Amino acid sequence: MELVELSCDAQLEYLNNIKSIKLFTDKVIEVNSHPLKSSNAINTMQINVGKVCNMACKHCHVGAGPHRTESMSQEVMAKCLQVLEENNFKVLDITGGAPELNPHFPWLVAEAKKLGRHVIIRTNLTVLDLAEYAHLPEFYAEQKVELASSLPYYSEKDADRQRGDGVFHISIKVLKKLNELGFGKDEGDLKLNLVYNPGGAFLPPSQKSIEADYRRVLSDQHGILFNNLYAFANFPVGRFLSFLHDSSNLQRYMERLAAAFNPATLNNLMCREQISVGWDGYIYDCDFNQMLGMNCSPKHISEFSFEGFQEREILMNNHCYACTAGSGSSCGGAVV
Amino acid sequence: MDTYYNPADLAKFSTMGEEAPELWKKFMAYYGAVFQEGALSAREKSLIALAVAHAVQCPYCIESYTQDALEKGSNQVQMTEAIHVACAIRGGASLVHGVQMKNVAGKLAF
Fewer C-beta within 10 Å: chain A N or C terminus? Predict the structure, then answer.
């Protein structure tokens, strides 16, 4: 299958041409929260180290896959680490693509840990079953990183429909290995969190309810333990936006998100306490804005100053409805 | 009217409140309360609603509760089993009325 990814302009045109919903910005004005500003503290630096991935999931907002070549250089990583050191960001959150496929990734993790930062790695699990990367679970345990692992459902059929044949089986194998290393236990500091996302154009269930289902099935059928389950909404960005458009689900899905708009989520949106850095060093409010080319100003990590980014105005578009629907959605799951 | 069932009509459900607003208000308050988490979870109630939607063969309800069941975290295996429950009760209800046939036939026959 040849993967053709939409340009940023094409994505924004799709998002802006849904006439049956209010513009997200107007909705924020309506609830007296405009302009939406980041807080005066920045807790998290999220770095997308590249779009290269061993998989090509149907819901991927990055449009990541084996066909991509974008990958963060060590020079840009060094600049990120400098900003991390000079400012009081507590958390480094590393995502991709599959971050493990960036050749400088182990160096980035080790350097951030030397700075005493909490490191979160968003892993697709299957990359850890490839011979070249099979040593990384031990490295993760040594470095005491927190893992956020994609597992979109607790049954093979549903998970594989979204991520590809055989992926569930490999994911289970890798989760068992991570459990053996001590990840996912109640006691100890090796956190293993799983990530649910809907298998199509519908909203996620309550995080608490689906977490209980995961815990029961994964424990009973596979003996797997994990710390928390995060329920993410699918974002109308990247490959999922293409799916919505091509399957004629876009308008209905956006209407569903807009109808579920919950102003209580606005105070806890992840964009308010983080910056997001792309593979080429450009800075955004979040990974979704990154995939839509919605740059912060100043634009590049080499121009970063804390004063320039605290209480900045968050850039918004209709995709933001996915963060504010129902209980909300963030890289840490539901927000209210 | 091209068809008795138009998907766009689902969004017009609330127009049923126009001529009898008090009854509509009471119905909607009751409806909302029924689907709250209770002794049964919201997910279980959604699966029951999906099964009943098939028993009463309401296309509006089937569309709504297919989406709702997915958004409560159910999968298609669970949803299909729920529909089989409706099917078994419908089929069983027909079959058990065969006893009435047997009663009548028994009375009429030599």
Answer: N
A153 CB near a chain B CB, below 8 Å? Answer: yes
Contact A206 B42 (CB under 8 A): yes
Q: Are strands A44-48 and A192-196 parallel, antiparallel or unpaired?
A: unpaired
Q: What is the pTM of this model?
A: 0.90
CB spacing of A205 vs B67 below 8 angstroms? no
Integer angstrom CA distances of residue A303 from A41, A76, A80, A81, A137:
18, 12, 11, 14, 35
ipTM value for the complex: 0.80
Minimal-distance CA residue of chain A relative to B41: A209
Residue B1 lies in a domain: no
Fold for the domain defined by A8-324? TIM Barrel (3.20.20)
Q: Which residue, among A265, A266, A314, A309, has the nearest Cα to A288 in the 3D structure?
A: A314
| Residue B1 confidence class, pLDDT cut points 50, 70, 90 | low
Cβ of B90 under 8 Å from any chain A Cβ? no
Interface probe, candidates B14, B41, B43, B77, chain A, greatest A C-beta count within 10 A: B43
Helix (H, G, I), strand (E, B) or coil at A185: coil
Count CB neighbours of A134 within 10 A.
13
Tell me the nearest-neighbour CA distance from A200 into chain B, angstroms.
9
Q: Could you tell me if residue B3 is inside a domain?
A: no
